[in-house]
Amino acid sequence: MMELMINIRNFINDRLxxxxxxxxxxxxxxxxxxxxxxxxxxxxxxxxxxxxxxKTYVQKLILRCSNKRKIVKVxxxxxxxxxxxxxxxxxxxxxxKKKGLEASYKTAHKIEEKFGKKYSSSVIRKYRxxxxxxLRRIRKxxxxxxxxxxxxxxxxxxxxxxxxxxxxxxDETTIVVYDQPIYHLRLPSSRPEAIPSSYKFxxxxxxxxxxxxxxxxxxxxxxxxxxxxxxxxxxxxxxNLTLGKMQxxxxxxxxxxxxxxxxxFLSASAIPESIDQTGLELAGLFNKECEKFSQxxxxxxxxxxxxxxxxxxxxxxLNLILTIIDLSEFSVRx
Length: 334
Known about the structure:
By secondary structure, the chain is mainly alpha-helical. The protein has helices at residues 2-19, 36-48, 55-75, 82-97, 104-115, 121-130, 146-158, 229-235, 252-260, 277-283, 302-308, 312-324; strands at residues 184-186, 194-196, 211-212, 215-216, 219-222, 240-242, 263-267.
C-alpha cells in the first residue's frame, strides 16, 4: 500500500511539473502587418483546443491578412464628410474619458440617426485609426487551459502584497495587453467595464481572483503536509492561495492541492442555497470538528464533486488517494 501511494505521488508530480514548463515559444505578432480580428479568432480557436499554433502558420496567416487589407483599402475609397469625422473624434474622446469604449457598429448607428448616411463598422474603424484611436472593443475572452491558470496563480502569489489601489480585480480578470490582442481590461467599478487591449497601453498581467460585485473571492490557507513540499517549491511563496469560484475552477494543480492538503477557507464569494450532505461525504470533507463551528457553514455541493471527478485521470487518482489518506484530517471551513 505504501508503494502504491508513492507511485501515485510521483505520477502526480511528473504530471504537474510537465505542466510547469513556462518557457513556451511565444508568438510575436506585428499588428501593423496583420489583422487583429483574424489573428484573434485563430488564437481563440487554438485556446479552445488547448493548443498553440505553430510560428510558421501564424506568419503565413499574417501575410495573408496583410494582402487582404490592401484589397480592402482599394475598395473603401469612399470619402467621408468632415462633419462626420469630427463626430467620430468627439464620440471616441467622450467614451475614453468615461473609461469605456464604444463599438464601431454603435457609432455607425448614431451617424445614421444624426446625418442620415450609412457606413459600415469597418469604414468607421478605418477613420478611427486615422484619427489615432488604436483601441478595439474585445468581444470575448478565450477559454483558458490549466497551464495559463497556473501561470496566473504563480504571478498572484508573487505579487499578492502589492498595492493595486487603482484596480478592483474580479474573478477571472484578464489584464494582459501586449502579447495577445484578445483580452480585455477591467477598471474599478461596481460592475466590470471593458476596455480593449492595445500596444499603446501600459503592459499589465492577468490576475486570477480578487473582488467582484458578487462578493469576495475565496482565499484558502494551506497547512504544510508532506505532500505539499513540491508545490511550495513551485509557487516559491508563502502558504496562501487565491482561488476563483469553485464551480468554474478546474486547474490541475489546485485540484491536487484540494484533495491531498488540508485547506480552510477564510472567505467565500457565494454560499450555495442547498447543502448536500452526500456531497460532503463523497468528497471526504466532512469532519467531526464541524460541531464546534455551528454558526459557520460547511458545504460542498454535488456539482463541485462532479467537477472534481470529471477528468478520468483525476478520478482514478482521487479514488486511490482518498482510500489511502486519513480523511479525518480534512476540514473545509468558511
